[in-house]
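Justification of computing resources. Each target in the renewal requires a structure prediction run like the one illustrated here; the chain below, 91 residues long, is used simply to show the kind of job we budget for.
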Amino acid sequence: MRPALPLALAIFAAAAAPALATPACSGSFGMDRERYSEAEINAYNLDLLRSIGVDVTRAEMWGGCIRVWVRGADGREEMQFYEPSNLRRVE
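Resulting structure tokens:
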């Protein structure tokens, strides 16, 4: 391997890191993972977000956040992230 190649790969990885970063969510999940299945937690979060007016089609726990797919006015889905403790959208 050439000496410049590892350096180039490190620079590329550092530049790509912000685009691949997981949104930072704080707080704890509302449901105990030992007591409820992943499917039950996802269904609960989906219903919870729908109850506050978010048009969620799918929900799952991902990197400490609730990752959801929301249907837009044009019918397309957009991925969004919410904090599990207060349901605030994470940008």
